[in-house]
Amino acid sequence: MAARRGDTLLFPTPPVVAAHAAIGGKKEGEGPLAACFDELSADNFFGQSNWEAAEKEMALRAARLCLKKAETTPDNVSLALAGDLQAQCTASSYALRELGIPFAGLFGACSTMAEALGLGAALCSAGMADGLLAMTSSHFCAAERQFRTPLSYGAVRTPTAQWTATAAGACLLRPAGEGVQLCAATFGRVQDYKIKDINNMGAAMAPAAAATLLRYLKDTGSAPADFDRIYTGDLGHVGSQLLRDLLTAEGLLLKNHVDCGCILYDAAEQTVKSGGSGPGCCASVLCGHILPRLEKGTQKRVLFIATGALMSQTTFLQKESIPAIAHLVELRSPQQKEENG
């Protein structure tokens, strides 16, 4: 059963990530983390006729592969927690209609994966789920059409703009067993620093990442140096520098910070401007890069902080500012458990 300390949920008997899968598109296959993906598509259609259907197919493949790795079936999964950027989370719901798993839809924009992991860990810890699927996805072309401009318009991207990843990630959580441990979760509070530029998501989200991290550190009595890495997703290069500036003002030097949006692509070669974004960005980096490093013991203890910009097409057109949120989970290597006896 979870214990609460301040705003942070602690799991004395940590649920585990029993299996995980990462699927990516063409651009992700050209980036520095290409080898981390379980499957990459030669194009961004995934055998479908439109971008939205392609994202659904990508999410479905990630879920099926995750279950295959866990040597289980949808019948053995108590609940799926999932969401995406498409209106009313259609990529997730259309994917899960194929699997027949009980489904609770989430919306946290790019923070959805950490939100799903935190809620999933709480449910597993409370004995409410024997197997729980946490997943999310995003698609560059679908997101551009919904939030910015049609691809055929040919709009010039600003230096602060980020590239929405065409990617999906899925994790199967279990209350106990072998796998990376989910030891704690801190859910974010909505932050709004009055940023209105839809091409500068990093500036809108950095304060949310800082606020959640500071609350977690206060609740647990931890320091940044206690972790091998502190991962965010996805602040990009601009937002990452702003996060470090905000924490420096609070007296914290963040020397072990890595942003998923900064490592998924090669910014110098792939014209992604400030880096990657989208729910699928940090989800695929988590499933393809972070979790394997924890499983191997390359890293023993990390924080995964996913950030989301909570605007809509309507609020943007109404010239509203962009509120943001960040959710945090603490992950530990199964090898650390063995070392501690």
Explain this structure.
The chain is an alpha/beta fold and 341 residues long. The chain has 2 domains: 3-174, 3-Layer(aba) Sandwich (Peroxisomal Thiolase, Chain A, domain 1), CATH 3.40.47.40; 182-339, Stage V sporulation protein AD (Peroxisomal Thiolase, Chain A, domain 1). Helices cover 34% and strands 23% of the residues. The chain has 10 helices and 15 strands. Strands 1, 2, 3, 4, 5, 6, 7, 9, 10, 11, 12, 14 and 15 form a 13-stranded mixed β-sheet that branches. It has a two-stranded parallel sheet with strand order 8-13. A hairpin with a 2-residue loop joins strand 1 and strand 2. Helix 1 (51-69) crosses helix 2 (90-96) and helix 5 packs across helix 6 (236-249). The protein is globular, with a radius of gyration of 18 Å. The two termini are 21 Å apart.
Identify the notable features of this structure and list them briefly:
341 residues, alpha/beta, Peroxisomal Thiolase, Chain A, domain 1, 2 domains, 13-stranded mixed β-sheet, two-stranded parallel sheet, 10 helices, 15 strands, SpoVAD
